């Protein structure tokens, strides 16, 4: 595991960045190189979220996106409150659809013309 990455990330980004260590291909248990407990412990020491996923088994994929979006929402809401924005302007119980919708609008709105 690359342990200096978390420090470098935190040194060069906003202090409220949401970082998450994601173990991919959790379905390939027989090829596991790092134990779950080791990864979880590393994430905890780095003050980072941790989750294992498997697209093949549909394990924690939606939970991953839900958790990241929830954490981002909390940071943005906290920032809005810290700068004195009106509480009424902070959206409450807003639904974010992370289903299998059309993503063409998202791709068009990106930073490049791909």
TrEMBL record:
GO MF annotation list: GTP binding; GTPase activity
A GO BP entry: vesicle-mediated transport
Highest taxon listed in the record's lineage: Eukaryota
InterPro entries tied to this protein: P-loop_NTPase (IPR027417), Rab_GTPases_membrane_traffic (IPR050209), Small_GTPase (IPR001806)
SMART domains, A to Z: RAB (SM00175)
Cellular component GO terms, alphabetical: endosome
Alphabetical list of SUPFAM superfamilies matching this protein: P-loop containing nucleoside triphosphate hydrolases
Protein name, entry field: Ras-related protein RABA1i
Species the sequence originates in: Capsicum annuum (Capsicum pepper)
